[in-house]
Specification:
The protein has 10 helices and 13 strands. With about 325 residues, the chain is α/β, with parallel strands linked by helices. Helix 5 (about 125-135) runs parallel beside helix 6 (about 150-160). Strands 4-5-6-7-8-9-10-11 form an 8-stranded parallel sheet. The protein has helices at about 55-60, 70-75, 80-100, 100-105, 125-135, 150-160, 175-190, 240-245, 245-260, 275-280; strands spanning about 1-20, 20-35, 40-45, 120, 140-145, 165-170, 190-195, 215, 235-240, 265, 290, 305-310, 310.
Amino acid sequence: MQITVERDVFKLAQVFTISRGSRTEAQVLTVRITDGGVIGWGECVPYARYDETLDSVTAQIEGLSGQITRAALYDLLPAGAARNAVDCALWDLEAKQSGKRVWELAGLSKPEPEITAYTLSLAEPAEMEAQAAKHAFRPVLKIKLGTPDDMPRLEAVRRGAPKSIIIVDANEGWSADVYADLAPHLVRLGVALVEQPLPASQDEVLIGMERPVPVCADESCHDRHSLPHLVGKYDVVNIKLDKTGGLTEALALRDAAIAQGFKVMVGCMVGSSLAMAPATLVAQGAMVTDLDGPLLLAEDRDTPLLFDDAGVHPPEPDLWG
């Protein structure tokens, strides 16, 4: 078994801005695992918020050797981007070696398209209204907020897309007081979900706080070990493979979260169709699917995921799984 890591860069269709900064490209790591002449592959997006860099994640992956199994991988690498790419590559490898699809190997039902949110970049209100109007045909719009001037932006998006479902992602950018002040307006404007309103280190104040709009844990939720700390604070958990450390843990987290009464959102970092492909399996029946990464790119993998009126479709075998 041979493992290789390659850096790939995908240009974005436009500058993408959240409360933490802006970017013009997606920098990803592509992992290939060769075994018996068969190659499986996966992708991850190292994220500085979790102290990951392209170099540090590459070093984690290159430190692996010998015959690696998905079961063994759980103890060899922590939850995060490195384990995600390797885990997904192992799933793809097993599918190719067995002649079965990953969903069959995982004991899942055949996946169907899922309507996905489309993310609007953080900008001035007038620009966000124009973005919203351009994408008003989309059923679900996600708004990046997390600044002191969020209300004019939210009002502008609602004007631009009066019929779309709106979800809001504050990226840990609000305080408890700001969230409490905004909550009634979120209801008034028909916001369906608020993602990570407070910093993960300060989310204890959500206990006992009125939540008129469902609140989703993103930075506060990584894998199954996170769940006990979310009770009483959140209604929904956002499952991202780059946080869970791969499809294996993502499926386990989904089942555990649902069993404990949480609803599920399946999200992504900004990556290519290869990164989204395994997540489409986790997203089946989710409250919110947010796998729009490829829609934000100016370029993609040779066999990209299909997006149409039915939503994001599961991958073709030529892409993954």
